[in-house]
Amino acid sequence: MTSHVIQSHAAHASGHGHDHEHEHHDSGGSTVFGFWLYLMTDCILFASVFATYAVLFMNTAGGVSGKDIFELDFVLVETFALLLSSITYGFAMIAAHKGNKGGAIRWLIATFLLGAVFISMEVYEFHHLIAAGHGPSGSAFLSAFFALVGMHGLHVAAGMLWMIVMIVEVNRRGLAPRTMTRLTCLSLFWHFLDIVWICVFTVVYLMGAL
């Protein structure tokens, strides 16, 4: 009788643990799905600003156009830094899935540094243009350019702040399921920004300079 009760309690505890684990797994999946929905709304936001730029990029008000101010060599280096950061983040996720805490942190730091290079170059470009008298108030083209590129830059900066938080969390808490879910969401966000930048580089810089 006693043995039966103990076995019953053990089975109940095991089942409860399994339900808790299943619930936690479902919660992580729901979080990632919810983040996908957020990215879709962000995609609509970027699409709207792209459409605005497409309408306004010819309205230079007699001032400079993209061909006059864009330096493709400079932007190519900037682009390479961001695309490389996507690769390093991929290595961070591989290390995290293997349970390699130190490797994940090192790759996250490398990703952050590449993001910092990208942002630094973008800030330099903006400062250089404004100092030369080509600020956002110069024409509709410049307003649309600063709005589109600047909005992407703000997203990258937000991603870098998030990355700092994740580096601290991984260092303190390890690679728990909840932390892995957050790393996955940041991965989606960072790769999304890379895709958006490819569109920015093609539509704004490449087409504008030709």
Give me the secondary-structure topology.
Layout: H1 2-56, H2 66-69, H3 72-97, H4 101-131, H5 140-173, H6 177-209
Helix pairs in contact: 1-5, 1-6, 3-4, 3-6, 4-5, 5-6
Q: What would you note in describing this structure?
A:
This protein is 87% helix and 0% strand. The protein contains six helices and no strands.
Q: Care to give the gist of this entry?
A:
The chain has 210 residues and is mainly alpha-helical.
Give a quick set of tags describing it.
6 helices, mainly alpha, 210 residues, disordered N terminus, 87% helix
Q: What is the helix tally?
A: 6
H-E string: HHHHHH
Low-confidence stretches: 1-25
Helical content band: over 70%
- CA(first)-CA(last) distance: 86 Å
The largest sheet, given as strand count, sense and whether it forms a barrel, is: none
Shape: elongated
What is the arithmetic mean of pLDDT?
A: 88
Quote the beta fraction. under 5%
Q: What radius of gyration results from the CA coordinates? A: 23 Å
Number of strands: 0
The class by helix and strand makeup works out as: mainly alpha
